[in-house]
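lol forgot to send this yesterday, sorry. struct tokens for the thing we talked abt
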């Protein structure tokens, strides 16, 4: 389920580190978090949708890898994005 372009732009503006930033780990983590939340809601009503479940697990793993990378590069930025997106660490 892709995000609505207006929602995506809003998330990018909220989490970008510089003007025009769309690919920083913070933005990628925030976008993945939003997609994961939407897909989780979908799976609550469609429990047998195994293809979507596999995609969800893939997105969760990618988000975890991005957070691990950010922790290696800058621990402060990693804890900031975790708090902003209400993730557990």
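and heres what i got for the seq, position by position
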């Amino acid at each position: 389920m892709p995000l609505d372009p207006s929602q995506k732009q809003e998330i990018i503006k909220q989490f970008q580190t510089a003007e025009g930033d769309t690919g920083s780990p913070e933005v990628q983590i925030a976008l993945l978090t939003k997609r994961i939340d939407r897909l989780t809601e979908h799976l609550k009503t469609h429990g047998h949708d195994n293809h979507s479940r596999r995609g969800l697990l893939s997105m969760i793993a990618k988000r975890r890898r991005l957070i691990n990378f950010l922790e290696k590069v800058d621990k402060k930025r990693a804890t900031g994005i975790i708090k902003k997106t209400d993730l557990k660490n």
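The radius of gyration is 14 Å. anyway ping me if u want another try
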